[in-house]
Amino acid sequence: MNKISDKKIERIITYRRVLLRLDKQLGKTHVFSHQLASSSGASSAQVRRDLMEIGYTGSPAHGYEIRGLLDSIGEFIDPDQKEGIALVGVGNLGRAIIDYFNGQSSKLEIVTVFDVNPDKIERVISGCRSYHVKDLKPVIIEKKIKTAVITVPSGSAQSVADELIEAGVKGILNYAPITLTVPHGIYVENRDMITTLEKVSYFAKNNTNK
Question: Is the domain of 90 the same as that of 71?
Fold first, then answer.
């Protein structure tokens, strides 16, 4: 299979979110490409190409069968078995991410958290066992964790990322306001909320002035 782009993966995951709403909230059984397109910001042709990429085709008369398409997307996107995720930095943002995320995915779950605050270690936080950051490497190795979330201050983010990678982590979601430097083969998503909010504010201002 050819390498699939980040943007295409994002679109397919967005399609699944739309399909789940149509299935669970609205009780729909079928959907057309133009309906997925209008709810996901893609074009109808793009939707059809993306779904062909995962080996699923629809009917011109009835569109796509929602349950079948959800199964195909799950087989394409999700890990084969349930996968544990580590989170480093149990501040307000870290806690919010744990509370929001857990229960949202059938295959992904934040199972281990790390911090340096004595009040936040050697306890269970939102269902996750908490450890001191100094124990990060042996715990990550023992639990065979491959994906981690970083919600520490910018001054600590790179060293935390380095330790995670040394322990075998291959994918990092980074909320620290710094761009991480990682070796080839490590996937990083940077979520700088200040930059994103400034971008939203810029377009809001310019739309208002029109």
Answer: no
Q: What is the CATH number of the domain that holds 24?
A: 1.10.10.10
* Whether residue 173 is found in the same domain as residue 96: yes
Q: What is the DSSP string of 40-91?
A: HT--HHHHHHHHHHTT---BTTTBEEHHHHHHHHHHHHS-SS-EEEEEE--S
Range of the domain at 63: 6-75
Give how many domains the chain has, as a whole number.
Answer: 2
* Residue-wise pLDDT tens digits, 140-168: 999 999 999 999 999 999 999 999 999 99
What is the phi-psi region of residue 63: left when phi exceeds 0, alpha when psi lies from -120 to 50, beta otherwise? left
From 145, 148, 142, 111, select the one nearest 126 (Cα to Cα).
Answer: 111
> What pLDDT band is residue 208 in, cutting at 50, 70 and 90?
low
pTM (two decimals): 0.81
